Amino acid sequence: MLELKKVSAGYGAFKALFDIDMSVQAGEAVGVIGPNGAGKTTLLRVISGLIRPWSGTITLNGQEIGGKPAYEIVAAGIAHVPENRRLFPRLTVEENLKIGAFVHSARGQLRERLAWVYDLFPRLKERRNQLAETLSGGEQQMCAIARALMSRPTILLMDEPSAGLAPVIVDQVFELVQRIREEGFTVLIVEQNIQSLLDVVERAYLLEVGTIKLAGTAAEMREHPFVRTAYLGM
Amino acid sequence: MDTFLLEAMINGILLGGVFALLTIGLNLIFGVIDVVWIAYTELVMVGMYAIYCLYSGLGLPLLVACLIAVAFVTVLGALVHFLIIAPILDSPPINQLLATGGLLFFLQSFATLLFTTDFRNIGVRLPSLQLGGMFISTARLLAFIVALIAVTCLYLFLKYTYWGLAIRAIAQDRHIIGLMGIDQRWAYGITSAIGGALAGLAACLLVLQYDIQPFIGNSFGPIVWMNCVFGGLGNLVGGFLSAFIVSEIIAISGYYISTDLSYACAFAAFIVIMFFKPRGIFSK
Amino acid sequence: MKRNLLFLLGVVVITAVLLLIGVPVYTMHILVQVLLWGAICSGWTLLGRFGITSMGHGAFVGIGAYGVVLLWNHLGITPWLGVPIAAAAAMLLAFAVGYPCFKLRVVGRNFSLVTMAMAVVVQLTIIAARDVTGGSLGLTPKAQTSAPLLALQFPNKNVAFLFALGFWLVVLWVMTRLNASMTSLSLAASAEQEDAAEAIGINVAREKLKVLLLSAAVTAVGGALLGQYLMYINPETLSGSPVSLQILYASIAGGMYTVLGPTIGSGLTLALTESLRVLFGTRFIGAANTIYGLMLILFVIFMPQGIWGTILSKLQGRTSRRARSLL
């Protein structure tokens, strides 16, 4: 469904991604692992249009989306939960959700969508009129995911959903991810927390210094000697 | 209390209405687009001349002339953004200051070219209200009421519409706004147009109180920015309140010291506040 | 050093030729103003090139011009003493505003706004004190006809030219000296990274303050000489925010990272306004500034290094990284 072919990108003169090939099929959950600075965040930013690819093609259901501005890519069906959640701190929870439904196709169904995400995350309903900055870290992650879901994306990108959260909360976040999977969403997750990630995804890519070093199913990755020694510390 | 002081204070509050309008317009642009429009009050001048042309020149009814003028300045606000600000959005902030400063020269001189520096007025003067020995200017009272209505409308727009929400969101985190499906260029354009509309509305209110000349923007410009900084750049509520505080400072120091020095006092107060509360008097 | 001497020699030769062949009075009038405004703009640039954009130098011009004339008209103090007194007054104001600004790190846009407010306060004060200053109507120094130079009044344009030239050269010398000094280095460092500069032991606030005081003094002297030359000062043309903006624009139009840039900027500005004035006459008041304003906008968008800066970098086939990043 989502297909990257020979995608390169970077910032200014600095090249961060080199000829990336990857794909995500409908209904799949795919993970991207790798050390800090490997280009994981850049990868998601290129897909969601926050930065333009330098070369290569990105297609969603056969349609070229590479180089389109972010706001068009959201409308095309890719939602991105950015690193560190990035809620609008001085908007209420409900306003944050409402802004997630900014795309035209979503506006008419605001009420239904709100009911649906509140159903998924009852905690958010309790806190709907609170400012986003008053939420706890886990609740903020919930709200960020819910905000992205408001546009009913065909594929959800998540950048380090567990970063900066307490260990107990991290488990909750991965439960959240699991629940979204069960709702039938296609997800592409970037994570540092490889152990937990491999529990919720079907396949994973290992990104190092801007290139894909390894790819395989979650089980293959877990058993791979290189991943075991370098990333799982076994 | 002495009635003259009371009169000065009431007039100060009424004056604050129009200042609040302009402060909110400029602060919205500050907060959302993160640029300083030095030439903001020059848009007011343009609006005043537009009303003068339409009303005194073409003989249109005043209300129609005002509506057209507001529309004109609204479009002008958007044009300023797309022609001048948009190309230099990523330049250092000082460049935006300089470019809009160039716009200030341009608008003032162009107005001089078209209308000369003669003072003009549309010949409409509203009577003063007499209230227990005090004289309250009807034009100011009207301006105050209209300004409050406009601010309320803006509040409702920002609170309840999608674009209003988008504009508030941008002011809080502009980098991820595209991920919400929002075209930043449009949001900036709309913000600038709203800024223009508020300036146009202020022009309608001020044309009833002041003569028109090419440099009239200079009489309001510095005060309006000062209000913005006082209230905290981009802080709409702060800007709204500080508009009234500053106009009270002007009114009261005008009463106690001298009208000539009242503006100077307000600016001196501004400098001192900038030292200690550079992010506005309402900052924590 | 050798280049400086060569430059000085060139200036002397050109001056001698100009004076010998005799330049039309009107041309001389323009030249004097170009040199004086050029010096003022160069004074502004001392500070401006470090990314500290004052929008209030009109205040110093005003203090210079008014200080000298007020001391002379009311107290009979000769401008020869009046100029240093006025310069000191300008420095005092610069200190009063600059010290807290730099100490409390009021920087960037906020510094611009504070200095602009300072210029407005000075202008409004001059207007308000109309009993002594003549208010908006302006003021004329009492003429000293018997021995004009004793009151720093210029008997003819050639003398004024020599004074203006001398002052301009001194300012250029100060500029080059400052460029070569430690202060300059540390300020350049602080323009990029104030904390980093502090960390290696540079007292950024003090260095900034020094340059601001120097800049204020130069500007005030320039303002004083302009007043003495024009023999008429008023709060609109020699103080306040419009003048501040003009100084800044001329400096930037010329290019503030070169020694001659600000002078070239003020030359072009004056040449433009004068030629448009001659072209359109008095029928189209405002035409000149309309075009000027338009050019400023285009400059910032397309030529942020200024005219002279752009030409120089074209000539040298490179663009200075700092020039682009700071403005």
Structural class of chain B, by secondary structure, is: mainly alpha
Q: From the helix content, strand content and strand pairing of chain A, which structural class follows? A: alpha/beta
CATH fold label of chain A: Rossmann fold
Radius of gyration of chain B equals 19 Å
Distance between the termini of chain B: 34 Å
Mean pLDDT of chain B: 89
Strand order of the largest sheet of chain B: 1-2
* Low-pLDDT windows of residues of chain B: none
Largest interface: B-C, 47 and 50 residues
Query: What would the CATH topology of chain B be?
Result: ABC transporter involved in vitamin B12 uptake, BtuC
Uncertain residue segments of chain A = none
| Number of separate domains of chain B | 1
Provide tags for this entry.
heterotrimer; A: 234 residues; alpha/beta; Rossmann fold; six-stranded mixed β-sheet; four-stranded antiparallel β-sheet; 11 helices; globular; C: 327 residues; mainly alpha; 16 helices; disordered C terminus
Structure description:
- The complex is a heterotrimer of chains A (about 230), B (about 280) and C (about 325).
- In chain A, strand 1 (about 1-10) and strand 2 form a beta hairpin.
- Chain A is of the alpha/beta class and about 230 residues long.
- In chain A, the strands form 2 sheets. In chain A, strands 6-7-8-3-9-10 form a 6-stranded mixed β-sheet, with helices on both faces. In chain A, strands 2-1-4-5 form a 4-stranded antiparallel β-sheet, covered by helices on one side.
- Chain A is about 40% helix and about 25% strand.
- Chain A is built from 11 helices and 10 strands.
- Chain B is mostly helical and about 280 residues long.
- Chain B contains 10 helices and 2 strands.
- Chain B has helices spanning about 5-35, 40-55, 60-85, 95-115, 140-160, 160-170, 185-205, 215-230, 235-255, 260-275, and strands spanning about 130, 135.
- Chain B has one domain: ABC transporter involved in vitamin B12 uptake, BtuC, CATH 1.10.3470.
- Chain B has a two-stranded antiparallel ribbon.
- With about 325 residues, chain C is mainly alpha-helical.
- Chain C has 16 helices and no strands.
- Chain C has helices at about 1-20, 25-50, 55-75, 80-105, 110-130, 130-135, 155-180, 180-190, 195-200, 205-230, 235-240, 240-255, 260-280, 285-300, 305-315, 320-325.
- The two termini of chain C are about 30 Å apart.
